[in-house]
């Protein structure tokens, strides 16, 4: 199968070759899918191999690597209203064509090897015309009761203006999408000010979750790491940053600003934390 499904402590992790994770929380009545990845493979079949319960879908934010698979589902996809426009742009035909092109030449960051991340039976035209799925706005405090499992929406802006995280209350686990991490992208048009990002981290810290689970990192993060990410944001100095290469960052001269004089070469070392900011970051 294109997707790799792993049973974790109280939820399922659905991973894809292009290093994006979706998460599935199942209750006695309903199931909830957090993010739909790029959706190159048959995500619906992957989800249905785990549960036949009625499904709720929530997008942590509007980026294409979190909403691309929405179109496979008839069910409503919940997203914060501030990210609906972003989702429409990222699920447009033009955007999808660009993504496919890049997916065919994916690079493994650890080994540097190039690979094709598309499945063998990939239907390019259907994918390109897929659209956004059935979007419905959701906001801070909304609660999904799945039957013995409760998932609550917490606004976590910074990476995007409509970023949300999902708190699985019974387990005290927070699914954070791209809200933070050792290498968080804050350079895009849709990002907020650094101050708002720092405030969000403080709020996340106060939540005191048992684990903070990101969409691109197989290792759950813990509360103390949030302190490192706060430092990275507070100490960020564009003039000392390292140029960041990405088609998304082409017009804003983004740079990676890491703590303690580290560079991207140190990315896999413990204690690495950075923010990727634009030339004139909104402070
Ligand atoms: Zn993102
Ligand atoms: Zn992402």
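^ Assign residues to that structure.
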């Amino acid at each position: 199968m294109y997707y790799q499904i792993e049973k974790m402590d109280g939820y399922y992790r659905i991973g894809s070759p292009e290093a994006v994770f979706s998460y599935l929380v199942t209750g006695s009545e309903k199931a909830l899918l957090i993010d739909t990845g790029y959706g190159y493979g048959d995500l619906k079949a992957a989800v249905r191999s785990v549960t036949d319960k009625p499904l709720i879908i929530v997008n942590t934010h509007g980026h294409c690597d979190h909403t691309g698979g929405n179109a496979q589902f008839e069910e409503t996809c919940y997203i914060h209203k501030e990210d609906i426009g972003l989702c429409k742009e990222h699920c447009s035909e033009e955007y999808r064509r660009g993504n496919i092109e890049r997916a065919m030449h994916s690079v493994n960051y650890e080994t540097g090897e190039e690979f094709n991340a598309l499945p063998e039976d990939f239907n390019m035209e259907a994918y390109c015309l897929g659209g956004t799925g059935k979007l419905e706005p959701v906001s801070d405090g909304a609660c999904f009761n799945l039957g013995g499992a409760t998932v609550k929406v917490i606004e976590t802006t910074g990476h995007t203006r409509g970023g949300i995280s999902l708190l699985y209350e019974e387990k005290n686990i927070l699914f954070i999408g791209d809200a933070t991490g050792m290498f968080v992208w804050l350079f895009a048009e849709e990002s907020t000010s650094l101050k708002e990002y720092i405030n969000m981290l403080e709020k996340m810290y106060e939540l005191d979750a048992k684990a903070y689970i990101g969409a691109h990192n197989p290792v759950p993060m813990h509360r103390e790491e949030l302190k490192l990410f706060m430092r990275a944001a507070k100490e960020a100095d564009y003039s000392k940053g390292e140029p960041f290469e990405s088609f998304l960052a082409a017009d804003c001269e983004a740079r990676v600003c890491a703590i303690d004089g580290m560079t991207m070469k140190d990315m896999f070392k413990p204690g690495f934390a950075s923010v990727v900011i634009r030339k004139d970051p909104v402070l």
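The CA atoms of residues 41 and 121 lie 9 Å apart.
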